[in-house]
Each structure stands twice: as C-alpha cells, then as structure tokens.
Description:
Shape: elongated
Amino acid sequence: MLKSDQTQFTRHENINLMSFPSDFKDNYAASPRRRPRVFRKLRERVKELTVLHKASRLFQKAPQKLRQTLRRLVNILPAGWQYPEIASAQIRYGNSVFSTDNFKETPWKQIVEFSTRNGKQGSIQIAYLEERPPEKEGPFLSEERALLNSLAHMLQSHIEQRIYQLLLRKNNASLEKKVAERTRQLTRLNQELTREAARSERGELRLKAFRNKLRKLLARTTKQEEQQRRTIAANLHDTIGQALAAMKMKLLSLHGEAIFYGLEQEIDDIRTLLEKTIKSTRSLTSEISSPIIYELELSSSIPWLIEKFSDKHHIQVSFNTAGDLTKISEQIRLTVFRGCRELLNNVARHAKASKISVTLLRDREKLFLKVEDNGLGFSVNEWKRKVLREDSFGLFNVREQILELGGTLDIESVPGSGTSVIATLSLQEKGKAANDKKNSDCR
C-alpha cells in the first residue's frame, strides 16, 4: 500500500483535491513550490502509521514465544523513519537483545526505555548509519519521537499482557490441582465414614466428627479459591484493562490524521480489535470474580446472576422476593449467591428445563432460598448414594457450605416431575444460635 501511495504522490496531476481537507487544498493551490514539502510530510505520516498498524497486527497475532515477536518487530521499525535506507533498530528486554542485520552504534540515534511489572528493563533504539540534516531531535523529526514512544508503550503493554496470561494459566492450573486433591480427599473421607457407620454403633459419632472436618476443609478451600480469584481479577482489571484503555485513547487521537492520510480503515480495524480485546478482558474478569458479589445486596446480585444465566443458556427464569434483604452478613450473602449459581448451573447441565423459579424470603431469624424447575427430575436417594462414590460434588458442595453455617438443604424431586431445592440459613451467628437453644432447653 505504501508503494502505491508514493506513486500517487509523484503524479501531481492525478490527485483529486476534493478528497483532501480544505487547508491542504489551499496550500496545494496557493504555492506550487510548497507542494513537494507537503507531500514529503504526508509520506512520512503514512510510513509512521503503517509501522504502527503492522506492530499492532503483530501483537494481536503474536507467536507463542516472546522472542519471535521481538525478532519480527525489530525488522518492522526502520521503515517508519525518514531515512529507512540508512536506519537500523535494536530492542533490548532483560538479558535479550534483538537487532536488525545492519545495526551498529552511531551518534545519530533515538532511544526510549521502559520497564514491566516483573522488574525487567527494556529499550527501543533507532540509529542512522550516516549523518543527515538536523531536525527537531538531531536528524529525527518530532513525530518520530512520538512514534517511538507509542511503540514502546505498545510493546510494554503486550509483554505485561503475556505475563498476566502466564500467571493466570499457572494459577488456574494450581487451583485445578488443589480442587482435584481436595475432591480425592473428600471422596476417601466419605468412603471411610460410610464404612465406619456400618461397622459400629459408635460410627454415628465418628461420622459427625468427620463431617465437621469435611465442612471446615471445604469452607477453607472455598475461601482460598475465592481470594485467589479476586486477586487475579483485580490484576487483570488494574493492568491489562487499563493498558488496553490507554492504547484505545492513543489510537483515537490518531483518527483525525488517519482520515487525512487515507488510513481510516486501518485505524478502524485496529480500534475494533482493541475493543474486542477490552470486552474479552472485562468478561474474563467478571467470570473469575465479579465485584457484584461483594458490593451489592442479594436483592440486586441475584437478579444480576439470573440475567447472566438466562442470556447464556436461554432459559426463562423468574425471581420473587419477600422481606428485608439488607444488612445480611457477607458470609451468608456469598453462600446464598454461590448456592444459587450452582443450583442454576445444575439445572442447565442436567434438567433440560424450560422454566426456573427463584424465590428469596426473609423472616426475623432465617433466610430462605428456593429454586424450582420443570425439568427431568431425579431420584434423591440415588443421588445421595452417588455422591459418596462418584466425583460429583455440585449439590453436595452447596449442602455442606450451608450446613457449616447451621442451615439446611431440602431437595424434593421425582423423575419426570421437576425439582425443588430449599436452602434455609439462620441469620444469627452460629455460636449465638446454639447458646439460645441451650438456654431455651434449660427453661
């Protein structure tokens, strides 16, 4: 595209002035002697935008290894400068150095340095191999300084995005490993509990003791997982999200010049890619750990969850409330939110339902969550047997979290007739509720 643009610039008689801004047409018509200078500036801007476009495309479709990306990028850079035939480039990052074949240190150079959040330092250097007439910065234009700074910012953002993607993959792998290990532990402990209960009259006491350990283990695992999710989500938002937003703002600032130089479509393509990346990052952050859970009351967070679920699975869900749903402790809110999410996902995976009803009620001492569907239903007794011998802990996980808070989970289902699940949680602190019950028994 650059070659065809240059051909057009040298054939003045074929240019349609109606396609250029008015100030350009005035300069073009007023002084024929100024035309070569105007076209030279125009060619320089085209070269600079072309390098930005190629770099952006390279970052969007970057190879798996960073070294390959940097090796390709360094060969793209010289074409954006005023004298590409004598321009050379070098990129440094950490202990690695990438240079064009003709690179050597000279007095005529531009350098910009940057650093990433992992503590590594980097730089981009452009050097002319021969002396050229002085401009704004030695032989370099002021626009070339802006181009170099923009490329360094893009490279810094790209490297940090790679860092956090790697961190996210490692954390996900670690979480999956921990969950798998905890699942195996829960399975073994449940099997031991079942054998002990059948073997001895004292098995019931031991069963209760083991169940308490299971609930504490599950509660601790769930809490650790939630903390790690919040940390990862915060890092995604504060680093990659803000870097992408900054890139978008810088790109929008070039939009006016892009129209002038005929590169509006290329800039729009880059902007579209950026917007898709920003949207994907926000969606990923929300899926990992949405702030909705912590910032809103249940009267707002549950409808938000239902809306997301309906949009994803195309299932009609109704929501009803009664009582005051404010001033509920964060632990209970989180348990109800997770429980509702798990029950909805369970319906989507297994029930083949077309309608779901979610009801949230509160009286003076208790909170009730009821989820009903018109799906296939199942045998509750068969489910209880499967939980103890299979690696399926959806409803079991919900039930154990509720029991840990002193609540109950009641399941009513018949094959072919849908399912109704009611979770009941005490709004009193667990220790206080036990003392109240003990005092009542004494009276």
